[in-house]
Amino acid sequence: MSQAASTPFFITAAIDYANGAPHIGHVYEKILTDAIARYQRLAGRPVTFVMGTDEHGEKISKAAAKAGVTPQELVDDLSERAFQGLWKNLGISYDEFVRTTSARHKRFVQEILQRVYDAGDIYFAEYEGLYSVGAERYVTEKELVENADGVRRFPGDKDPPELRREANYFFNMEKYQPWLLDYLQANPDLIQPAGYRNEVLEMLKEPVGPLSISRPKNRVPWGIELPWDADHVTYVWFDALLSYLTPLVSNGQDASVSGTAWHVIGKDILKPHAVFWPTMLRAAGLPMYRRLVVHSHILAEDGRKMGKSLGNAIDPEALVTEYSIDAIRYTLLREATLSADSPYGEGILISRLNSDLANDLGNLLSRTVSMIQKYRGGVVPAAQDLAERDRSIEAAALALPTQILALVDDLKINMAIEAAMNFVRDLNRYIAESAPWNLAKSDDTQRRLDTVLYTAAEGLRVASVALEAVIPTKARELRAQLGLASQTYALAPAWGLTPAGTRVVGGPILFPKPEPKEAPTPAAGAPKPGKKEKPMTQTAPTETATPTAPASAAAPATPAAASAATENLISIDDFARIDLRIAEVLAAEAVAKADKLLKLTVKLGDETRTVVSGIRQWFEPEALVGRKVILVANLKPAKLRGIESQGMILAAEDDQGNLDLIGTGLDLPSGTRVR
């Protein structure tokens, strides 16, 4: 980490506007912020994680009137049931939850307002302009976008802005525009990813003007009264942004703690956090926040924007009911990137759940526990003489925490997860190479068996800590099955913390694969589906078995089907002409102006090639580096977007359209022929 482990860490997620139920974007943001906070705690830092609900403003007044309840009744229900209830179900580990209707928050807002007013930065004036009810602020013509119906609206609004003329109090925000521009240029890592910093720099090229910070109480009665004029209530953003500091100030800390804050927000509220908030802090004599982390949107699985009218929206409550919270957390964090809108849905969730969590991690745990039970009576043996491969696992385990924390500090959460899963996959390869089931057959290889079993168990402990910020519940369950239920561990370089003699406990499957969706009722006379495969137990088989289908299982082919199948058959000579090779990805980058294409640099033995592949939707370029894939090496070169592609990467697609790259379980050298 860039900070010492003892340095306090203060992080906030954007407080949620309590005029409707949370959506999947809210869920992603809170899981993202929670994961960052958990990584920091695992690194040994004292963390304060603040969340809350924004409960004032014109939209809430209108929503309450429409629902036939008071504004307070509306926000009480949404804050406590819809938002806090969902965050509890998702295991969000916030330390403070602030509500802007609380007495402590009102006091703090009025204190800061009075401070800025006394400094001469707030004045009264009449103003006419376009007002967005959705964004609850005045907007400019340049910010409006023409929609398909020909009407210009502020992005995200259902209705066009209204022309309003009224007398309000204004904050002299433009006074601080030169300072903010200089600050951003002197601190290039303040707003991340960098693309959003560039957006803010573009905003600051134009005059930002004054900021209207009040509304007449006779029009918007639902808000915090100005301390010097009870006929006006505070503009919702001047109220909401201060909520980040309310819990700490009310607990006795100085408001200058603002200078340590990491704020995590969605890209749609960039301007209030990157322009309004910094100038407010400056006017109040408070230091600038440490970092603004901006994330993009979650799209539907088909790549379109989600919407109820499109029928592709995800209901977070239904998602939490159907899938484990750790599977939701893992798949969202693994699939989404900060800088680009990311598709997500059940198909993506199930694909990652089955491949990464069930097959890679869950199966590794089941095999390890089963082998320790079978070969050592359930007791973890002591490692004996270490071979080079054992030491390579230990070295990787010792390097992993530092690697992960560096990636987290750089906000590459999906790459931190992939680093942990690469370690898990290497453990699986280690077991396959070591073949403990064969070692168990000879008295001469018992010491070697002890070492392999210990390495697998301790490697799983390391993996559980590396993944704990992402799958906190399952990480603890994993350790419980290893007999380490009462233990907590720091995310720090360590090996050998599983004591020899520990009795493994075992337990249910860590990540059960989802049951297939119920198929339509078959027509009368149709064959009944076969029995479902039994789930793996804590004493799962330790050797890979190849099931053989009975001869009678194949249905007789019709003459037409047999003819079509015969026409598609190739000879062994045809197959021999296809040159399939193991290739290692050395570099990967997006192809400009091509949403689907990645340019890969791959290694085939001593040869390096360029391959263009249409897999950008499913894979982040950074996550592919170092991965072994299968390449059609003798495909005729073709030019794609002006780049010569020298081969084709093999991939497989499920019936949901999810893609996975074909590889092998063994770490074979690049250039190895596949046959």
UniProtKB/TrEMBL annotation:
Q: PROSITE patterns, alphabetically? A: TRBD (PS50886)
Gene3D superfamilies with a match to the protein in the record: 2.170.220.10, HUPs, Isoleucyl-tRNA Synthetase, Domain 1, Nucleic acid-binding proteins
Q: Where in the cell is it found?
A: Cytoplasm
The biased composition feature labelled Low complexity covers: 539-558
> Which EC number(s) are documented for this chain?
6.1.1.10
Xref: InterPro entries: Anticodon_Met, Met-tRNA-synth_bsu_C, Met-tRNA_synth, Met-tRNA_synth_2, Methionyl/Leucyl_tRNA_Synth, MetRS_core, NA-bd_OB-fold, Rossmann-like_a/b/a_fold
Kindly list the GO molecular function terms attached to this UniProt entry: ligase activity
Provide this UniProt record's keywords sorted from A to Z. Aminoacyl-tRNA synthetase, ATP-binding, Cytoplasm, Ligase, Nucleotide-binding, Protein biosynthesis, RNA-binding, tRNA-binding
Q: Please give the organism.
A: Deinococcus knuensis
Question: Which intervals hold domain TRNA-binding?
Answer: 574-675
Q: What does this protein do?
A: Is required not only for elongation of protein synthesis but also for the initiation of all mRNA translation through initiator tRNA(fMet) aminoacylation.
What is the main EC category here? ligase
Q: What is this protein called?
A: Methionine--tRNA ligase
Summarize the subunit comment: Homodimer.
